Amino acid sequence: MLTRDGCGARQQRLLQRMSESCIDAIALVHPLEIYYFTGVLLPEQFPAQPALLWIEAGGDSWLAAHSDAGEPLVNACYTYPCSIGGTMNSYMRTQLSELVSERLQARGARAARVGYQREFMPRMLAEYVDRGLGREAEWVAMDESLHQMQQVKDGDEIELIRRAIQIDLAAYDAAQRVIAPGVNELQVLGAAQQAAHLAAGEKVFHDGDYQCGQLGGFARDRAIEAGELYIIDAWVIYRGYWSDLCRTFVVGEPTDLQQSIFDHLRAFHDRIGEYLQPGKDSRDCALAMDAYIRELPALADAGLGHHGGHTIGLRAHQMPDVNPERGGLFEAGNVVSIEPGSYIPAARAGVRLENMYLITETGPENLSQYPMEIHPVR
Fold first, then answer.
1. How far apart are CA 210 and CA 177, in angstroms?
2. Dist. CA 210–CA 59, nearest whole Å
């Protein structure tokens, strides 16, 4: 999990941003942001018990949640009962709201300007915060500031990303071993998912593009066919952090066209150090990728079939992305996926090859060292 030292450093950076914006306190409700600052990862899916993290400009902090397990990095924890006999309560946000209002009153909170997550804050909970404060606070959206903080990764985050990548690569090992004409796409996915769980030593999320002969899409109840290219864009979430990789395999033997497309796109990764540098514009990388892809005559019209990549961490897609129309400046500490891809019907259906790189002051580090070969490894 995230470390206490890492969470403490992130809280200090948050307090600095709050001071710069004259924010008296911040109320965070999304499980990922609560995890980022406290080290406790609450479930986003069922049972998805809601929570609120309150941090004041003076440094006082507390967490209201369904449990105080996990030693969150806060000064106090307050809990509400989320179930009776294993049956989840229907109105947990009401329970949370009442608890938050009560604790604000009991602690004598008097915040006038309250930072919040505009994308996630329920209206009811905000009203109960006002009630607890005894006033109608001025609510200040902090989403962009939080996103900016998360673009540059701390050491404990990078270690979790490295682990997520290794789990993802274990899934690729298993997927390759079952690729053969007539095998069902769901069998390929199932083999990969089992390998991911075993590699992690715990249940993890693993899914992605597992449709054969297609640009992308989830696995179908369909047999893969000889001559198709199998793009597997596979994802893992390990303890809150993402891996997003892609390899392309041929079912059987590649045609000359398929091999030429594969070799051409693979070679772009050899020159990625030119673009993944602090201060370089991510849009330049996307434009260069598209121009390079078009140098192969078969791909002159198709070019880059989508974005060229994206930064990644707590969420699969973060900013800046690698996009001709949107992006920003790379910084040391960004973790970036680079995924040249191009698709034409004659290739049944195309190639995408994705690695994840850590941008450092001296250049990119490939976090996903793994063979790029068109033939599945048995």
1. 15
2. 47
